[in-house]
Amino acid sequence: MIDHLHNIPGEFFWLFGALVVLLALASGIGAVLIRRPGDEKKIASRRNLVERVNAWWVMVAILAVALLTGPTMTLILFALASFFALREFITLTPSRPGDRLPLSLSFFMVLPLQYVLIGMERYGTFAIFIPVFAFLLLPSIAALRSDIEDFLSRSAKQQWGLMVTVYCLSHAPALLMLNIPNQAGRNALLLFYLLLVVQMSDVMQYVFGKLFGKTRIAPVVSPSKTVEGFIGGGLAATAIGGAMFWITPFTPLQSAAISAAIVIMGFLGGLTLSAVKRSLGAKDWGVMIEGHGGMLDRTDSICFAAPVFFHIVRFFYSA
Amino acid sequence: MMRPSSALLVGVVKLLVGAYARWIGTQPANTQRIYFANHTSHIDTLAIWSSLPRALRSHTRPIAARDYWGSGLKKYIATRGFGAVLIDRARENTQVDPLDPLRAALREGDSLIIFPEGTRGASATPAKFRSGLFRLAGEFPGVELIPVYLDNLHRSLPKGALLPVPVVCTVRFGAPVMRIGGEEKEAFLERARAAVISLNTNAVTA
């Protein structure tokens, strides 16, 4: 681990230092706000703000430890995130006794293997493992159980769960295996960049939405998403991403364009997974993270942004 | 101080099924209680026990059937891991009342986790309750009777399954069931069963 610390780019410590200052500021504001008098609704939304900031502290701490202790820890961290997200997805998805074996295999074989393949830097296998092999074999196992009730719908839902929570999410730590000229040892900064832009976009859209939100984009799917929130928050996150070009191989303009792509994909991820969630009859995916709902409520935007960001970097920047 | 084996056990259970406690009609407290729940899976006992605050676990003892938990690794987990009270379901020895070990634990001041259906069912709604709960309720009038509903566990590790499917389970604790003087056994058991069922708010199809 000590050896590894020498290989960490100095920017890392600056970035985490800045995040700690930002969070301390947010916690300070929260502590002042929560003492102020107000009606019940205001107090509830302030409490939600404090809970969100607290959850952020935990997430930043976990991420810092994972990135500092190396790629294996980072992979384990994301594998766990996938596990919890898939657990939430499957909990809300009706299943039948014939699905038990394919489901167990999804959790205990497919999921770990996907992350092991990334750890072994087997791009060719990692990219097709779930869309081809899991897609073909898991429903076959279910079919052998001769239970045809809702068969297509059951298989499709389970494959959707695997694709979103394992395949898509695993593209975030897969950034660590890209070989980018003149950027040796700096891949973790790309992962940091992705997470920062996605989360900033979420936060900024929330803030702009609360301040200026009027026109709802898709009221049935996601009542809190507004045109004003998306444009204001999206532009702010794009600007922040553009300004972070110096930790990436991108020029400032490229960085802004790539951030815009991350923002749009993140937005679509939140929207689409909200539609999935509501079609399964739930408001939140789960209750794991206080103030944030479940793991999937927190990672929905990363799930959609990670594969697109990964392929942009791989196509244009990797050797 | 929690034993390492218990900590590991709780960790595994939380990883597999979450076991998130929802205190709906009561709060966690150090009063002596009998928690009684619906029974659909091998993990039920562990899920309730893991969902309790750590301070309550050492004084809360699940009841486990000796014919299943009474030997080998399972016995080690049951007795060392979560301090289970082993009982004979088969009643090989008709001289001894199978409830005696439960009475002993209650007299020592421990709380109990019991499954009044006696065996694991396959559906989200519990089967008819057996009479043990009624007898204990009468003999120990000072002990609170807390209904508990476990959701989703019949999807995780039902009867006959080898591998678990990780699904999120919530453990709902309801308001204590009151004793009504002179109430018949059947009426009491049906009321207790209804108290468990009423905690099942959002049924997800199996």
How would you summarize the topology of this molecule?
The complex is a heterodimer of chains A (319) and B (206).
Chain A: H1 2-6, H2 11-35, H3 40-69, H4 71-92, H5 100-119, H6 123-144, H7 151-174, H8 187-212, H9 227-243, H10 252-279, H11 295-317
Helix pairs in contact in A: 2-3, 3-4, 4-5, 4-7, 5-6, 5-7, 6-7, 7-11, 8-9, 8-10, 8-11, 9-10, 10-11
Chain B: H1 4-17, E1 20-23, E2 33-37, H2 44-51, H3 54-57, E3 60-65, H4 66-69, H5 72-81, E4 85-87, H6 100-107, E5 111-114, H7 132-139, E6 144-150, H8 153-156, E7 170-173, H9 185-197
Helix pairs in contact in B: 1-2
Strand residues, percent of chain A: under 5%
CATH fold field value of chain B: Glycerol-3-phosphate (1)-acyltransferase
User: Into how many domains do the coordinates of chain A divide?
Assistant: 3
Low-confidence stretches of chain A: none
Radius of gyration of chain B: 16 Å
Describe it.
The complex is a heterodimer of chains A (319) and B (206). Chain A starts with a helix and ends with a helix. Chain A folds into three domains: 1-69; 70-175; 178-319, no CATH class. Chain A has helices at residues 2-6, 11-35, 40-69, 71-92, 100-119, 123-144, 151-174, 187-212, 227-243, 252-279, 295-317. Chain A has 319 residues and is an all-alpha fold. The longest helix of chain A has 30 residues, at 40-69. Chain B has one domain: Glycerol-3-phosphate (1)-acyltransferase. In chain B, strands 1-7-6-2-5-3-4 form a seven-stranded mixed sheet, with helices on both faces. The interface between A and B is medium-sized, with 20 and 17 residues.
